[in-house]
Design a protein that fits this description.
Blueprint lengths: L1 E4 L2 H18 L5 E6 L3 H11 L3 E7 L5 E2 L10 E9 L3 H11 L12 E10 L8 E6 L6 E4 L21 E2 L1 H5 L7
Parallel strand pairs: 1-8, 2-3, 2-5, 5-6, 6-7
Antiparallel strand pairs: 1-9, 3-4
Helix pairs in contact: 1-2
């Protein structure tokens, strides 16, 4: 398994790149929806930058599986959904169904234009987000990305790893880190 330590600095630069893509696309969402847990930090940052309302939603298929009900208000004609990674694309597909109605049935009539932004996109999945900054072949490359908010206690910045860069580390270094998860 190859581990990628995604730093706070890289995340902030990438949120800036997402905002740039969004502005250049001329898409003006009425609301930013952040998917818990990974989409909350970048979603809040984007909402502050654009001075738009932010709505968190717990929509997880794997970590603490749960699907919260949220439908945009009728005035929310454009919604930007933000997550940290588009891994399989299933969360984004389910979010589309949740807002606009199921694809397999006749969709509800909806005037809501939903777009998706993510920091990382697994380019081996069938779903392609509207906005992304980094892509990887996560499945075939056997890659695990550690986001700064989900593993901060074991980040190289907070450990005494010797001769290990902030970027990638190997499983051996990860196992021997001096700070353990509570």
């Amino acid at each position: 398994m190859k581990y990628i330590w995604y730093s706070w600095k890289d995340m902030m630069l990438d949120v800036n790149a997402l905002v740039r893509q969004l502005v250049l696309s001329d898409y003006k969402p009425a609301v930013i929806v952040g998917i818990a847990r990974g989409g909350l930090t970048p979603g809040v940052m984007i909402s502050h930058w654009l001075n738009l309302p932010f709505k968190p939603i717990h929509a997880s298929l794997r970590d603490f599986p749960h699907w919260e009900t949220y439908l945009p208000k009728p005035t929310d004609d454009k919604v930007l959904v933000v997550d940290d990674i588009c891994d399989s694309g299933e969360t984004f597909l389910k979010m589309t169904d949740h807002i606009n109605g199921p694809r397999e049935k006749s969709p509800m009539i909806s005037n809501t234009e939903v777009r998706f932004a993510t920091l990382w996109w697994n380019n081996e999945c069938d779903f392609k987000p509207h906005y992304w900054v980094r892509d990887c072949a996560k499945d075939s490359g056997k890659i695990w990305i550690h986001f700064p908010w989900e593993a901060w206690w074991s980040s190289p910045l907070h450990n005494n790893f010797e001769n290990v860069s902030e970027g990638e580390i190997n499983e051996e270094n990860f196992r021997h880190s001096n700070i353990r998860r509570p």
